[in-house]
Specification:
The chain has 318 residues and is α+β, with helices and mostly antiparallel strands. It is 47% helix and 17% strand. The protein has 6 helices and 11 strands. It has a 6-stranded antiparallel sheet with strand order 2-1-11-10-7-8. A 5-stranded mixed sheet has the order 4-3-5-6-9. A hairpin with a 2-residue loop joins strand 10 and strand 11. Helix 1 packs antiparallel against helix 2 and helix 2 packs antiparallel against helix 6.
Length: 318
């Protein structure tokens, strides 16, 4: 579904650009006049006052337009966030199909159909997201001080991986001794859905649960809770939510854009693996640094500091 941009008046961008161009032209005339002020000081003073008044008038008009443009940017930010979430969701749906195929729920033919549909959805949503991101970059050119990306919305907590069902005929009182006989379940296993085998007395009560790799179910939780937070002179800046694959670079085709010359077009990427998030440098000339050390690949821990081209990000798991 194409993003809804009908409520955003992009003609205001052209109006603001024209006002700023007019200001630059008047300032240029004022600077030229300054070179001749010693020759005819009285005339120069009069012209300088005229140019200053014209610049101020243009600035007042530009400020009024900027207010409306910022309102449109806030509406665009909401569309931007919806598109970004759509891309992440499409990737998760593909990952879910792969997981269900691995545990035997889908046949190969069923999986291939779902895989084709999921990859098509990813491509369509990425195209929509690129359109919105390109439009947002136009706004940023005329509104200095705005964050490179809108702050990520706080995601609702992901549902816990379902526990295996209990037999209907067993009450809580009857089931309690069975739970005590089995080994204590680690907290990490409670999240991923991998349960230790019960003792002989427990087998009639709890149906066996197939053992699966922990990365797949926990990946959905990680997508919603892992962030890169921009560090702006010790103060937190824009928040970037991490998906299964997050690219960082100078050009708009990256999930996180760092528009400075020292950052490569495709500088680095952060990938969700079965052991957590890993940051990889993509052969950039100026390098990627984690906690002050240059890396090619590094498994991220909470509060790790990632730096590239003067921009610092803090990796945060919530």
């Amino acid at each position: 579904m194409a993003p809804d941009l009908g409520n955003i008046d992009v003609t205001l961008l052209d109006t603001l650009a024209k006002l700023e161009a007019d200001q630059r032209a008047v300032r240029a005339l004022s600077e030229k006049a300054a070179w001749h002020r010693d020759k005819v000081f009285e005339v120069y003073s009069r012209i300088a006052r005229d140019y200053a008044a014209r610049v101020n008038a243009l600035e007042e008009q530009a400020n009024a337009v900027r207010l409306r443009v910022r309102e449109d940017l806030r509406a665009l930010d909401a569309t931007y966030e919806r598109c970004r979430e759509g891309v992440d969701q499409a990737r998760v749906e593909l990952q879910e199909s792969e997981f269900r195929r691995e545990i035997g729920e889908f046949t190969r033919e069923e999986f291939l159909k779902r895989q084709e549909a999921a990859e098509r959805a990813i491509a369509e949503r990425e195209q929509e997201f690129d359109r919105v991101r390109a439009l947002r970059l136009r706004y940023l050119e005329l509104l200095p001080g705005e964050p490179a990306e809108p702050p990520a919305a706080v995601a609702p907590p992901a549902p816990a991986w379902p526990a295996p069902p209990s037999a209907p005929s067993v009450t809580e009182t009857e089931a309690a001794p069975v739970i005590r006989q089995g080994p204590v379940m680690p907290a990490t296993e409670a999240v991923t859905g991998v349960f230790p085998p019960a003792g002989p007395a427990a087998q009639p009560e709890v149906p066996p649960t197939p053992r699966v790799e922990a990365a797949e179910p926990s990946a959905t939780v990680a997508i919603a809770s892992a962030l890169l937070i921009e560090d702006r002179s010790g103060q937190p800046g824009a928040h970037h939510r991490l998906g299964v694959l997050t690219t960082i670079g100078r050009t708009p085709d990256n999930q996180i854009v760092v528009p400075v010359r020292e950052v490569s077009r495709r500088h680095a990427e952060i990938v969700l693996t079965d052991t957590g998030y890993v940051v990889k440098d993509l052969g950039s000339p100026n390098g990627t640094f984690v906690n002050g050390e240059r890396i090619t690949e590094h498994r991220l821990q909470d509060e790790d500091r990632i730096a590239m081209g003067g921009q610092v990000f803090v990796f945060k798991v919530r």
